[in-house]
Amino acid sequence: MADTALPSRRKETRTDAVMQAVRAKLASRALAAGDRLPSIRRFAATMGVSPSTVVEAYDRLAAEGLIRARRGSGFYVASAALPPLALADDRPRRDRAVDPFWVSRQSLDAGPEALKPGCGWLPADWMPIAALRREFRALSRAGDAVLADYGSARGSLPLRRLLMGRFAEEGLEVSSDQLLLTPSGTQAIDLICRFLLRPGDTVLVDDPCYFNFRALLRAHQVKLVGVPYRASGPDVGIFEAALSAERPRLYITNSALHNPTGATLSAHTAHRLLNAAAAHDLTVVEDDIFADFEPEASARLAALDGFERVIRIGSFSKTLSASVRCGYIAARADWIEDLVDLQIATGFGGPGPVAAGLVAGVLSGGGYRKNMEEMRRRLARARREVAAKLRELGIEPWLMPRGGFYLWCRLPDGCDSAEVARTALADNLVLAPGDVFSVSQSAAAFMRFNVAQCGDPRVMAALGRALERGGESRRARARGKAAFPDPTPGDNL
Amino acid sequence: MADTALPSRRKETRTDAVMQAVRAKLASRALAAGDRLPSIRRFAATMGVSPSTVVEAYDRLAAEGLIRARRGSGFYVASAALPPLALADDRPRRDRAVDPFWVSRQSLDAGPEALKPGCGWLPADWMPIAALRREFRALSRAGDAVLADYGSARGSLPLRRLLMGRFAEEGLEVSSDQLLLTPSGTQAIDLICRFLLRPGDTVLVDDPCYFNFRALLRAHQVKLVGVPYRASGPDVGIFEAALSAERPRLYITNSALHNPTGATLSAHTAHRLLNAAAAHDLTVVEDDIFADFEPEASARLAALDGFERVIRIGSFSKTLSASVRCGYIAARADWIEDLVDLQIATGFGGPGPVAAGLVAGVLSGGGYRKNMEEMRRRLARARREVAAKLRELGIEPWLMPRGGFYLWCRLPDGCDSAEVARTALADNLVLAPGDVFSVSQSAAAFMRFNVAQCGDPRVMAALGRALERGGESRRARARGKAAFPDPTPGDNL
């Protein structure tokens, strides 16, 4: 029977065996740099496999750079050996300042053994995995253009149509030329900032706000002004005063469930915000990324304003997949037209047909809605349970959110959250200390917890130890003996 | 037999039938906004399908926004009907200036019936489609984290290891912390520009150069200086003079096969460029996107320089898939460290594990290399054949490239390529006129042709007509009667 007719798994095993044999020869110096490898026919006979298996194995070793093909003369051991793989390759550095990047990188680069109550997403197995797997199988049978072409400049029309349907459920009318797909929600905001801001402009954000807004706006070299966030939205009096005093160009906020507080913007606050924005010709970016976590829809700025001065952005990273990245911008059609050009200039377009097709496929199947219902139930339970456990450690939620996965909490008296977060790394515990969310740096006593990442019983134990050690080191410092290097006072980013 | 046990294709058909029935009721006004839909059990009986099929159909209609679920009370016709889909939705505007965006958007948004000798990519069926399909099937069985998590801040380590292997084949040593994955090659350059440039800086590009470099650098508000490109690379004398006179911060170029000319940088020119760059502390971005199209590797700036002042970028959009987008930056480790932060701030990371996994899977299988060999053979034949046909129309290649899919050609005397490109749109023919590639706007007599997109016999016929009409309209204008509105003189972008 021809080798190619074997089940692919057996063929895989044979290919691996040939690759291992070559690697062993390299390790034992039986083959050195520049040496010619055995011919395909000879090595196939030696290994008792078909020549096609050896070809496949040599091709893969060539792709890894261990060997190289010379046309018409066979395969040779590569002269430039790969540098050894540093074991600590991607591990985040622990000695950097506790700033917004610190949280991002600790979260992204934590090993699989880390516990991450500070991270901003759900565990992978909470996502609609079965629906994703189904869509990957469907894609394996999709047309060539879906698999290999760029797609249109605004992004997949079927996905934009689905977004229009979701907006229509809020009573928000939007046409397909008011929508632009972007590679992520963050890139949606970034593109808007490039379009509307110039260095030196002033931008309002909530205090506290999603920490990466601070990093993003810093990259745009703008002045940040924070507006204290209350239980029903930003403090409108301070917001109005800031508009008069600072003449900001933009206000960026989350509607639905606010990050990090989990609070809900009230209809009354939303209405007053928009009136103030109109009076001062302020543009508002509404980041709606947590919308699907709400039990019932709350007030939305875009729904009230109808895209006159509100730009809605969103993505599916929190509810569908953060690996298949896809975000969107909904705005005035003339702005979208300009944003299309800007996205071509800076990225040659947004997400390709594969990412857009995956998202559209999952959204339009029933699995997404069912998974969201289940997620909301699980999160409601997790919020209660985690809040109770945090209280046992003296950590008190600022409010109980209606939905989502965040609890914004006050630490026990005297605890500095950056210090606690830093010391927690010794236990492989990634935390999100309050000041990374705060423009005014007034949230050192707070910390954001992701209740979906607190299920492991080791989390509360490690958190308890970190609180203690944090306290000890404060006391040590108070006595003039730092237990570990001072946290950098920070670039105040 | 339970409905769920049916083959999925029959289940799909039934779900579609239920959806069609509901749509028909909406179209005939049997159901109007706010009406309750038949209960699931009742409609299942009416349609002769299982309740689960009706649930699936209702869920999909809800996802499309046609109906909405109210918890505990069934499904209702959505009150906000979708606006009608504009037929001309994504069609590019023909009345805009013939600038770099014009080519991008005509190419991206052309309908399937368009002929696109001006576009910058290969037809989808030239790509390694079978390998892509295999990787999609493999992904449908991948771990949850691959399908749903963000992945690491620098991007998939296996893909970076594969890149290290490819670099090693050039004798170019690079460690994994010198590599950052980006969502596309364009975004790689954009990130570097954000990192190194400030508004008002000067940047050198080739004249002609890839048109989107001009659009990208315009977005960075820098001054562009073009260096005439010769058959063996940029004119070194003018390059050196520009370094002294303009003190540019950056030079951005293609190595391997230059876009749009298809010319090859000679080792001698590369060496002199790098010496001049060293003398003036200039950083060089080497866009290596066409490397795999070369029959034999030519001189590379990064290979000579070793990442001291050269930054290598690349992507797989031209050879693997433009739908699965993934690019990379190879540079000094300390720069990469800063670029990681910048990519978090502006995009919350690069390509997710899905895109990186697809690219790594295709690259490490043998199919990619085989497909590239076949592509190179096909392209060599196509270059010869298309060059011969163009010559019949009086269109003369500037040189015959060693590889790739571009021919940079001089049009017959008196033809203005922007005018020809504009008039060609009447025949649904998308062309790439010379001046979009030229900082000095001195390439009006030139045009770039993609030989892989010239296989359709209608291309040469339509091109012939466009040349004639372009000539006629010039003569008409010369007599003071424009045959169509004057092309906007352009923002000189």
Automatic annotation (TrEMBL), chains A, B:
InterPro entries: Aminotransferase_I/II_large (IPR004839), HTH_trans_reg/aminotransferase (IPR051446), PyrdxlP-dep_Trfase (IPR015424), PyrdxlP-dep_Trfase_major (IPR015421), Tscrpt_reg_HTH_GntR (IPR000524), WH-like_DNA-bd_sf (IPR036388), WH_DNA-bd_sf (IPR036390). It holds the Pfam family Aminotran_1_2. SUPFAM superfamilies: PLP-dependent transferases (SSF53383), Winged helix' DNA-binding domain (SSF46785). The keyword Manganese does not apply. SMART domains: HTH_GNTR (SM00345). Keywords: DNA-binding, Pyridoxal phosphate, Transcription, Transcription regulation. One of its GO terms (molecular function) is DNA-binding transcription factor activity. CDD domains: AAT_like, WHTH_GntR. Residues 12-80 form the HTH gntR-type domain. The keyword Transcription regulation applies. Residues 472-493 are annotated as: Disordered. In the C-terminal section; belongs to the class-I pyridoxal-phosphate-dependent aminotransferase family. This is Putative HTH-type transcriptional regulator YdcR. It comes from Oceanibacterium hippocampi. The gene is ydcR_1.
